[in-house]
Amino acid sequence: MKILFVAAKKNMDDTERELYEMDLMNEVLGFERSLLDLGLLTILGGTPDKYEVSLQDEYLAPIDYDEPCDLVALSSKTSCSVRAYAVADEFRRRGKKVVLGGIHASLLPDEALEHVDHIVLGEAEATWPQFLEDFERGEAPRRYEAPEFPDMGTIPDPGYANIDPARFLFHQLQTTRGCPFKCRFCSVPDISGQAFRFKPVDRVVDEIRNMPRRGPLVERMKALYMVDDNFISRTKYTQELLETLIPLRKKGEIPDWSAETTLNVATDEKLLDLFQEAGCTTLIIGFESVSQETLKSMEKGVNFCLSYQEATERIHQRGISIVGNFIVGFDTDTLSVFKDTRDFVFENNILYPFFSILAPMPGTELHEEFKREGRLDHFDWSRYDTRHVIYDPKNMSREQLMDGYAWLYEQCYTSDAGLANLARFWRREERPASGLMERLYLRWKLSRSKLLTPNGRAFADRAFALRKETGKVDVAQLLYYLDSGHFAEFLHRYRSDHYAENSAIFEAGGSDVGDVQMQWEDKRVKRRAAAMAGS
Ligand code: B12
Ligand code: SF4
Question: What are the two backbone dihedrals, phi and then psi, of residue 5, each rounded to the nearest 5 degrees?
Fold first, then answer.
């Protein structure tokens, strides 16, 4: 029996962009994609040897619907589910059987079953082989559900044999699953439960050693991305893991790596030292909001530890940079949220801010609440991607929410103030500066880039010129800025006609401009009333 795994694209319109795809970074470094969905890759890796497998990645080539196979396997995150359904429909039209797994199918199984023959719910490592046995015998029920979460020690290595690793920017690894918190916008506890589970440390080491390597240059550019929701979920385990990784790092077996944690990581300075020694160069921290009121209303109680400034300072002192995740559009957010967030980023010298528009994902409490209140515009899941506005925010117009989101990217990645934030980091950072060869390489690659815009080029020139003042240029960090700046420019198409006026409001912290806001609110109300009268 042959199983065809298909990684379906999110956007079929090639002019659309997702920041996490890092198109510019990949173009410059010679990769084709950031990463392939680890869920699909893990299920592929756990497929018993007796079955033939193949993989198509729609990001790399159009889908060949006629490839002979007995079963097509697809995965589903909410924002990709619309495309996954369309791909499934097309395969089924051609007489193929389709099975779907992943978060979205697990949260909305009935919807998914309208498009596929079978669904496998939840974490599927244990159920997948059983499903295949039953399917081969023609006895598989439509819906499979694991009675319990799989033992982390039995999670197979991702199916590396079926991909060319040189095409992907990141290695990926998951060491823990589950989360005891229950933030109202998050799907994780529903999917992976509220108990923390850990991959045995020796399995983690094996997985790192089994990662495919492709020559010293490719490996040097590649980074390892720990995809855990919270890498420090139990300190004792994290400590043991880091202590085991340190000697491997010293032997050059582990590249630079990043991991997602809460800001509580900074409370334990010894642990932070271990992070540094084990080669962690970036921590991804879910600040979510700069407003204490919002954090409380979302029941996000995990970030209260030190003052933010103390905590970020401790991380920076170890030469570790921060990806700060921020969400805008909560009901408690007013027009001041944009300036407050930007100022917070600059004041704390957060190097890589990542902004999202609140998306009440299916399965979350927030989704149910918005649905009950009739506030959701639609269930077009492709726009539940945190860069579309899909509901009426409470304290601003929807145009202002979109403009504010675009403004934050513009401010942080294309403006002089954004460049100054990068320069501040270079001045303080202890990491060695990029050498002449690296700088020349980046300049040469940028000069040939098809994606870099004139604004991007000008930003790069200004950044290179900063070397005189800061004493260094870090080419990897600059490249990330150019990529995000490219994304910021892509967002221009979503800005409202009032972007300039709105920017002035944001800059003023949302105050002193109440009249302008009211005037627009008023227009919006009139427009709506007119639309309703016409319908
Ligand atoms: C790493 C990560 C990313 C990475 C990589 C994503 C990727 N495409 O692989 C990046 C940074 C790119 C990313 C981006 C986004 N992410 Co994200 N991400 C995660 C994170 C932290 C881990 C995902 C992971 O690799 N898990 C490990 C694998 C092994 O687990 P898994 O994918 O669930 O797969 C298992 C099962 O689902 C199932 N399964 C999966 N596929 C299949 C297929 C078959 C055939 C079968 C049988 C079973 C099966 O079996 C697998 C093994 O148990 C999760 C949180 C989480 N715990 O899931 C959020 C999460 C998936 N992301 C989320 C969101 C919202 C986003 C973004 C919209 C955010 C943004 N602002 O851009 C984008 C959209 C991404 C997309 N459309 O692909 C939400 C998704 C909610 C939802 N309903 O879809 C999550 C759950 C986080 C949250 N707090 O709610 N993300
Ligand atoms: S946002 Fe983070 S802390 Fe909150 S429930 Fe999700 S995984 Fe847990």
Answer: -90, 135
Domains within the chain, CATH numbers bracketed: 2-145 (3.40.50.2300), 257-300+308-510 (no CATH)
CB 191 near ligand 2, within 6 Å:
no
Integer Cα distance of 57 and 294 in angstroms: 39
Which residues 6+ apart lie within 8 Å of 207 measured at CB? 157, 173, 199
Nearest CA owner, ligand 2 atom 6: 186
Burial of 526 (0-12, 13-18, 19+ CB in 10 A): exposed
- Integer Cα distance of 340 and 358 in angstroms: 17
**Residues 255, 222: Cα–Cα separation, whole Å:** 7
Is the CB of residue 222 less than 8 Å from the CB of residue 169?
Answer: yes
- Residues 284-299 have pLDDT tens digits of 999 877 877 777 776 6
Cβ atoms of 232 and 238 within 8 Å: the answer is: yes
Residues 6+ apart with CB under 8 A from 228: 174, 175, 176, 177, 259, 260
352-385 tens-digit pLDDT: 999 999 999 998 989 999 999 999 999 999 999 9
Distance from residue 123's CA to the centre of ligand 1 (Å) = 12
Interatomic CA distance for residues 88 and 65, integer angstroms: 10
Q: How far apart are CA 164 and CA 367, in angstroms?
A: 38
Q: Is the dihedral of CA 439, 442, 445, 451 positive or negative?
A: negative
> Pick the residue with more confidence: 460 or 517?
460
pLDDT value for 278: 97
Q: Mutation test of ligand 1: which of 38, 58, 361 has the most ligand atoms closer than 8 Å to its C-beta? A: 38
Comparing C-alpha atoms, which of 57, 52, 25 is closest to residue 41? 57
Task: Enter the pTM of the model.
Answer: 0.93
Nearest protein Cα to ligand 2, atom 4: 183
